[in-house]
UniProtKB/TrEMBL annotation:
This is Diacylglycerol kinase. Mn(2+), Zn(2+), Cd(2+) and Co(2+) support activity to lesser extents. It comes from the Bacteria. Signal peptide: none annotated. InterPro entries: DAGK (IPR000829), DAGK_sf (IPR036945), UDPK (IPR033717). It holds the Pfam family DAGK_prokar. Gene3D superfamilies: 1.10.287.3610. Belongs to the bacterial diacylglycerol kinase family. GO terms for cellular component: plasma membrane.
Length: 145
């Protein structure tokens, strides 16, 4: 019996090798949670995206935007956080492979992943402004400013 087969049949999931398939759905969620905790604990930009995203969603609720607008904002906020997680994963794999040596392809991979995060963040700003700007402006004008 291989390690993979033995692992798949065990009641208590262990993570002896990252190539192993999670034995249970609960183990899969546990690994995903570990990834989120790692990103939040170690990635400043992920924490910024989470904070700004929560702020945007809070503002949307305060402005009582439509459910459609709220759903679009949630998707946009989620997309930025997903891109940051993918960027973190790419950086970790590149660092694993190049082992503290410089390589142009490693730089390109990291820069392109960071560029993807930047594009998603810029697009999310545009979405946020288009959906939250008009109701926020109305609210501000109603205060007499």
């Amino acid at each position: 019996m291989t390690n993979r087969t033995a692992h798949s049949r065990s009641k208590q999931p262990t993570r002896q090798g990252s190539w192993l398939v999670a034995a249970t759905l609960l183990a899969s969620f546990s690994y995903a949670g570990s990834g989120l905790r790692y990103a939040f604990a170690t990635q400043r930009n992920f924490r910024i995206h989470v904070g700004v995203g929560l702020g945007v969603l809070g503002l949307a609720l305060w402005l009582q935007v439509s459910l459609t607008a709220l759903a679009i904002l949630m998707l946009t906020v989620g997309a930025v956080m997903v891109m940051e997680l993918v960027n973190t994963a790419i950086e970790a794999v590149v660092d694993l492979v190049v082992e503290q040596t410089y390589h142009d392809l490693a730089r390109i991979a990291k820069d392109c992943a960071a560029g993807a995060v930047l594009i998603s963040a810029l697009v999310s700003v545009g979405v946020g402004l288009s959906l939250l700007g008009p109701p926020l402006w109305e609210r501000v004008q109603s205060w007499g400013f």
